[in-house]
Amino acid sequence: METQIHVPVGSPVIRKIPIFVDEQNVAEGAMKLIKELRPAWDPSHVKTKLFTDGTTNKLVGCYVDDSQEDVVLVRVYGNKTELIVDRDNELKSFQVLHANGCAPRLYCTFQNGICYEFMQGDALGTQDVRDPSLLRLIAREMARIHAIHAHNGCIPKPNLWIKMRKYFSIVATEFTDQASNARIQQEVPSKALLEQEMAWMKEHLSTLGSPVVLCHNDLLCKNIIHNNKEGHVRFIDYEYSSYNYQAFDIGNHFNEFAGMAELDYGLYPSQEMQMTWLRVYLQAYKLFTKKTEEVSPRELETLYVQVNKFALASHFFWGFWALIQAKYSSIDFDFLGILLMEELCMSGKACRILRRSSLAHTMKAFMGLLMWPEEGGWRASG
Q: For the sheet containing 15-17, what is the strand order?
């Protein structure tokens, strides 16, 4: 078994351009790349648009005049992101997903970034992912990606615990400014406690039987593009893609219903919404994996339990990520924001509940209200 993604035989070789782009002047560097990628474009007619939603990298779109038909995206890797992102694995994910019609074209790499095709459509928001029609499109697209087979015939191994352990080993515990240090002391448990909770989480979640599939692992709302004209959604940004537990990818997406800039866990999907989403997902997954049987109530309940438990691992994982980014990122974002840190604290608290409960129970909601689903029934705990 292995965690590495393998590119299909015959995939095109990725072009490498020896250009370094200053992240403080992305537009100028992007123009140098455009001269290589689009030599027929008149430089005086090329326009650039800086995208500001990213929390890891700098991104600029390049196009001619007002035409949106051919937009080249130039992404400059953020400072020290090699600590948290396996760039080689990202490129392989890009290639595999493109080969299966799930990703745009990758034009080239350069010394500190990549260029790729702009995907036509609209990035979704927290209300869009709750829309009944879009919800179904998202569930089906995730099932399509999860059904992609490993190309070397090996049985894939989940990357979650390896990645989480790596993040844990490099999380920042001290900052140069006193204010950040004070927030760390107040809002984040000790590394000893975090390591203990991480061990409990691995022990319990690894035994749930969630299939290991090709996962996106970072399906926040803005990483979902809806093409209304063609009637489909596609996922973008594959920095964290890897083989992982099916239930982690879904649980992580459900966590992202809360948003990013202003977290609101009241938006975490209800039991009814989750069951609708999961039923559509299972139906599509069976279709893509050529299984003909109907989705059983037990299958649905089992996946619900797995997803909500793995949502805890998602909180833990991104809590570590936030601590690393707070130390090294040059992007103007409050990585030490109290709600991001509450995710870490909440998941630790829930993990303690998890280890005291049987594996037939799970956490339903956060912010102190627990609803534990059981196979065959539901009960709430105050």
A: 15-17, 106-110, 113-117, 72-76, 58-64, 46-51
The radius of gyration of the chain from alpha carbons, rounded to an integer in Å, stands at 21
Q: Could you give the 3-state DSSP secondary structure of residue 99?
A: helix
CB 7 within 8 A of CB 96: yes
The answer, yes or no, to whether residue 341 has pLDDT greater than 70, is no
For 16, the 3-state DSSP assignment is strand
For each of the domains in the chain, give its residue range(s) and CATH number, in order of start.
15-117 (3.30.200), 122-375 (3.90.1200.10)
Q: What is the Cα–Cα distance from 355 to 350, expressed in whole angstroms?
A: 9
Torsion angle, CA of 240/243/249/250, rounded to 10 degrees?
160
Q: What is the DSSP letter of 180?
A: H
**What's the token pair of residue 229?**
């004209």
- Residue 240, judged by CB atoms within 10 A of its CB (0-12, 13-18, 19+), counts as buried
Q: What is the pLDDT of residues 303-326, one digit of tens each?
A: 999 999 999 889 889 888 877 877
